[in-house]
Amino acid sequence: MRRWGYYDYFRPSIPRAVKGGIKAQSKRGGFGESWWARCWIGVLESFNIGARLGRGRSYARNGQVLSIEIEKGEVKAKVQGSRSKPYDIKIHVKTLSAADWRKLAKALSHQAIFLAKLLAGQMPEDIEKAFKGVGLSLFPEKLRDLKTDCSCPDWSNPCKHIAAVYYLLGEEFDRDPFLIFKLRGMTREELSGLLDQAGDKTTIRGTKHKPRLSHEGKEALFPEPLTSDVSKFWSGDSVSDDLFGEVLIPQVTAALPKGIGNFPFWRGEERFLDAIEPNYVKASPSGLNVFLGEKGHFDDSSK
Q1: Where exactly are the structural domains of the chain?
Q2: pLDDT digits (tens, 9 = 90+) for 101-148
Q3: Residue among 37, 7, 39 at smallest CA distance from 24
């Protein structure tokens, strides 16, 4: 990034309009809903770069960020500014050593709630305390732990383009908190394997051994043998009428996408769930009619 001299004059610029860029999904106000996302944003705001934070938020909301790639210890992004060629962004995060990760995994193995939640794919609250307990930190704490660079001519580092990427990363951490671990050098799968190895084998691995069912138990689970007649299997002749019980429109609309969460780095004009939920509202009555064998409002057979 170019460093301007004391007498150089930097004129305010207007970014070029972008179609299909990554847009922030948070509403007006702060970025990041979870504590870990807010901690990440706090690192950016601690740099005290003044008005560039506001411009970075505008860039993030207007979709000026064209792409973001997250790897171990590194984020690469492209941001469209006022020039024809997008600016190249690089954010380097200091990764933890293999010895540090083993030390952390050993400490977490003695915290039953932490270990259970992490192995279930959840980010426990207060996990930062576990890091602190072994002299580590989940988030970069010192300037040397975090290096940023942008190909723009702005003298400030981080600049508004880097700030825009920071804010979008905060939103992405809301969707997938384990990306923070990836930036520190450990993927979710690697962390799960490390925790499984370091965990108490008598309590964690012992649960993998399921008790054997007795002969009577098997009969209770399978009271009717499966038919060997393939034609009856595919025709559904042996299926009882009340197999599915009472079929109703789900009380929670779009339960599956809501459980999965927001789409990664969404590029739409509105929030992903806001865009997809009306489709579920319209499709549910039609799907129920198809299941019940009735004609609904969406029947196209006459066309």
Answers
A1: 35-198, 244-303
A2: 999 988 888 887 887 888 777 788 788 888 999 999 888 877 677 899
A3: 37
